[in-house]
Amino acid sequence: MKTRLLFFLMMTVVFSACREEEKKLTAPAGVLPIDSAALILRDVHELESALMVSGIRQDSAQTLYRLRLEPELLKKYRLDTAKLNRTLRYYSSEPALLDSLYHLVLKKTDSSAYIGH
Predict the structure, then answer these.
(1) Buried/exposed 85-104: b ≥16 CB within 10 Å, e otherwise
(2) What is the spatial distance between Cα 86 and Cα 31, in angstroms, rounded to a whole number?
(3) Which three-class secondary structure state does DSSP give residue 54?
(4) What integer is the mean pLDDT of 90-115?
């Protein structure tokens, strides 16, 4: 009897943890789903990386990003700055969410582009 009770308690804890993890990966209203956020962050980091290695002065690169590249990115994903900021705040509010998001960013990054560098 004790074994069954212990097994039942352990399974309850396991299923609760799974439901909690599933709940964390479901974004609230007004926040992009984690897959979409990962695609956008991948593009943001690729743009920033390209600017860093371009040889453009930092202040000019920041201006170029803010005035031209960021608006193009927002248009590509049909986003506004407020929704992007809400999304970033939501995922960065908990380390586990941010970790999950960046695992997806890495999966969505074309790693073959870095072979031989």
Answers:
(1) ebbbebbeeeeebeebbeeb
(2) 6
(3) coil
(4) 84
